[in-house]
Design a protein that fits this description.
Strand order of the largest sheet: 1-2-3-10-5-8
CATH superfamily: Jelly Rolls
Distance between the termini: 43 Å
CATH class: Mainly Beta
Number of domains: 1
Number of helices: 2
CATH architecture: Sandwich
Order of helices and strands: EEEEEEEEEEHHE
Largest sheet: 6 strands, antiparallel
Helix content: 10-25%
Length: 146
């Protein structure tokens, strides 16, 4: 990791990604950790998935999110920290009717930074699932009848 400051309105290397309608801005990258700021518009979500090799967390800055752990729903608001251990399926939903802003992180960094580069602007769900699986993020199949 390089010393320095990632400014509030900028990402590492000037990067910003649109991933399924959400804006992700990388803030810190090392072998051990990857951190990004996220803006999640109302009614957007990250479908249930598993990180088999990474612990993940979210620190809520503004707004509210619902985190689903296989039917167990937790609500998070400003100041809350969400912990998502590796190997446990989770989905992230903004059902609040308002934008949410938060800081995400994973440890170790593994392949997630490279995945976000590839996912920028992808709209085809099958391609998103395929690329994610190649980068150690496994999306769960949709429920029957969905």
């Amino acid at each position: 990791m390089e010393k320095g400051i990632t400014e509030a309105n900028k990402g590492l290397q000037g990067l910003s990604w649109n991933v399924v309608g959400q804006t992700y801005v990388p803030k810190l990258l090392s072998h051990d950790t990857f951190v990004w700021a996220a803006t999640m518009p109302a009614e957007t979500f990250v479908p249930p998935h598993i990180h088999p090799t990474q612990d993940e967390w979210i620190v809520m800055i503004q707004g509210n999110l619902e985190i689903e752990f296989m039917g167990d729903v937790h609500k998070a608001g400003p100041g809350d920290t969400v912990r998502m251990p590796k190997g446990q399926a989770h989905g992230i939903f903004n059902r609040s009717g308002a934008e949410a802003k938060c800081i995400f992180g994973v440890a170790p960094a593994r392949k997630l930074f490279d995945l976000f580069i590839l996912l920028d602007g992808i709209t085809d769900p099958k391609e998103l699932v395929r690329l994610s699986a190649l980068h150690e993020v496994d999306f769960l199949p949709p429920p029957a009848g969905a």
